[in-house]
Amino acid sequence: MNTLLLRSAQENDTKDKYQESFRETDVDCVSVSPIGFEFINLETLYAHISHPEDHSGLIFSSPRTVQSVALCLKKHDENNEWDARLRDEWNKLPAFSVGTSTGGEVRKLGLHPVGEDSGNAENLCRIILEAVKSGSKPLLYPCGTMRREVIPKTLQKEELPVTYRVVSSAYMITFPSFRTRTTSSMNIKKRRGPRSEPWGTPMERERSFDIVCLIETCCFLFVR
Predict the structure, then answer these.
(1) What confidence score (pLDDT) does residue 90 get?
(2) End-to-end CA distance of the chain
(3) In angstroms, rounded to a whole number, what is the distance separating the alpha carbons of residues 157 and 151?
(4) Residue where a domain terminates, one of 146, 169, 192
């Protein structure tokens, strides 16, 4: 059976746990994301990154948020302050991250992830609360427009100061573009047998499609 996963593919060399689970049951699959992302507010983010002394650490909840730091450095670190001093200064502070993929991106920055094996945002919050006390300088939390509210609500409840900066914005991929990407993925995999089934995470199903686009996509996948 051939399956199309409506979700973002793994963003680094780590094996995709969803695809691996399907393949263990002899289901071939390919991931195609129905949503796209763009980085925003990078100059504002760099204004914070350039002043580690004003913060008590970093919080990264996805690989994309780490990538936003790398991109803001590329665009705005004209004097190479990151290599000269900022990396060392940030390494004196914890870089809290959830997930091995996020941790891998943190290492690419030259930082050391804390909590990457926590498994989820709830467990990461426990690690943060053990390490950072109320009254400390704010934690810097780059986040996206599709962030979950677990970290903000938990830390706010404990009166832990956090500086939030939205650094990525999600948008729905229009149907013609999505159809092109889907067809390309299907052709590359040279699929045979039953046609693909749309599937994805609850967040992507909820936020990525309006009903018309979803109907059109389903019709395309099953009729072609």
Answers:
(1) 98
(2) 16
(3) 10
(4) 169
